[in-house]
Amino acid sequence: MNAKTTEGPQADASVKAGREPGEDTRELDARLEEIIHEYSDRAGALIPVLQVAQSLYGYLPQRVLKRIALGLGKSYSQVAGVVGFYSYFTTVPRGRHLIRVCLGTACYVRGGRLVLQALRDELGVDVGGTTPDGLFSLAVGRCFGACGLAPTIMIDDQVYQRVKAARVRDILDIYRDSARKAG
Ligand code: FES
């Protein structure tokens, strides 16, 4: 996992899109309790518990951080400090679709940086951000295993290969159109 300057791709790959606001989280809360219980006696439990919590909720709401702090016998500021340090963790809900731009070596040298800039411009958000309509979140990764077809991006589980900056809008429009049709 990397600090705030970069993002960890493997970690990112496990992140689910954000849950709907107001969604019933009782089942998730119960699962979180189990995880906290399971890890409470282990050294170095904080990061694994945070990872599981983020994969459950899609992000780390403050109430979840407080629960984890209490459950692991840590202060809230300790927990918040770790969350703030690692770019993998997010305290804001993810958009419906998570876009990850590969900045691994092959993709970087073949234009991944330009693709990322095009996405920033098109979405109006930076890495780690979510569009105001909640449709997209933007992240970066390090190699999706398709280096021969670089540069690549992933949107949710779909890999797009040989992406050109000029094609970014067309790709996003697929998701915008389907969101419009879904009402
Ligand atoms: S470096 Fe981008 S897919 Fe491998």
SSE blueprint and pairings:
Blueprint (H helix, E strand, L loop, with lengths): L8 H5 L12 H14 L6 H12 L4 H11 L3 H10 L11 E6 L2 H19 L12 E6 L11 E3 L2 E3 L7 H14 L2
Parallel strand pairs: 1-2
Antiparallel strand pairs: 1-3, 3-4
Helix pairs in contact: 2-3, 3-4, 4-5
Question: How would you characterize this protein structure?
Answer:
The chain has 7 helices and 4 strands. It has 183 residues and is of the alpha+beta class. The chain folds into 2 domains: 13-85; 97-182, Glutaredoxin (3-Layer(aba) Sandwich), CATH 3.40.30.10. Helix 2 (26-39) runs antiparallel to helix 3 (46-57). The structure holds FE2/S2 (inorganic) cluster. FE2/S2 (inorganic) cluster binds at residues 102, 104-107, 143-147, 150, 152.
- On the 0 to 100 scale, the average pLDDT is 87
CATH class of the largest domain: Alpha Beta
Q: Which strands sit side by side, in order, in the main sheet?
A: 2-1-3-4
Main pleated sheet: 4 strands, mixed
How many distinct helices? 7
